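Q: Got a minute? One more chain.
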Amino acid sequence: MFTRLMTTDQYGQFNLYQSWLGIITIFGTLNLFAGVFNNGMLKYEHDRDRYTSATQGLSSLAALVVVMAYLIAPNVWSAVLGLPHIVIISMLVEIFFLPALQYWMMRQRFEYHYRALVMLTIFTAVVNPLLGLVAVQASSEKGVARILSVSLLNAVIGIFFYVLNFYRGRRFFHAAYWKFALAFNLPLIPHYLAQFVLGQSDRIMIEKFSGMTKLAIYGLAYSIGLIMTIVTNSINYSFIPWTYQACKMQQYDRLKKCSMLLVLLVAFVSLVPVLMAPEIICIMGPPEYSEAVYVIPPIALSGYLIFVYSLFANIEFYFEQNRFVMLGSCAAAVLNVVLNLIFMPRFGYIAAAYTTVACYFILAVAHYLLMRRILKNAGISESLYHISLIIIITAVLVVMLVLCVEMYPYPLIRYGMIFMILLVCFAKKNTLLEMINRQHNKEENV
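A: Always. Here it is, folded:
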């Protein structure tokens, strides 16, 4: 809808905002709702309300520091970000309050309480585009209007959970919890920045090299790939607490079996948007976005590789070996920027998607090697994952994605493959549901 209501420049401005939001959020929240929060849920399982409240207090302090930095030199911020002041102010308000929602969501996932989470997700999925449509149609600055509609909705929802978290925990400052959170997450800031570079810097560089129009095309493809990423991230977020419990109780065989089923599921999920890419692009955007069809396959593969390396990183987080996570991510991020500088001027903006895939592949290998080292130091000789099967699944997926591009002119074949994927998923649904129930019952018993 928005690709038809907005020009490519306006849609590109919205994508640029999202990119800058990602990097500033790291400094404004210290990403305390990420890895450290799950560890805190396990470490302070009998005081989760106060831990959540105190962690929110710490992220609020970080947000205030960023707000002060903006107030000192607002014109510099606007020039660097390429965004008007009203948009930057809205961004900072969102950064201040939105972590409260993230804390609540992460805790719901950790405790396997999904009903309220699903209801809130459906609510935002409906209200977000409706509010955006009203704002875009009522304004001549449609890019700014779309940004403000998303930002203000997130801020309003965040305010509710901001108050709720403080009401339940009644603690802004807690020395032990702040010390634990800072000691765990500060070394990870370079890691989170590196993740941003891998996931978002492409769009900033495309805007510099190719302009807003190409950024809009790339942004549409990225948004479609993001649908798959949301699914895989949700699977991983749900799998993290179960992974922690399995490691705590040394149930490595169960971890190995469940992880392989999930890797296979994510591989299937990655194929679906690629097989439907021509039709999705036709629905999602006007004809000038048709090139986006060739960006979706590498973005889908990147989402799969993110899930794979997250399996290894989860083990690193469990053993609190954060410096190893940082080293691998930073190396991949630097390589991504270098490859973009080399290949984007020669092959255009589409090259950015393929350089990202290469870096995620290297990152997955690096995290696997780091995980092995950590396990060895911990005296664990048993392999936690079927690495040979993961390699085979990855190789098959790469071949399938290449074939999908060649089959774009043949919709009957592509939809036949989708039918086969759904058939396999349906045949294995009982196994998957049984695994989910075991995870849920395990958490309740603990």
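A: The chain has two domains: 1-185, 200-446.
Q: Perfect, thanks.
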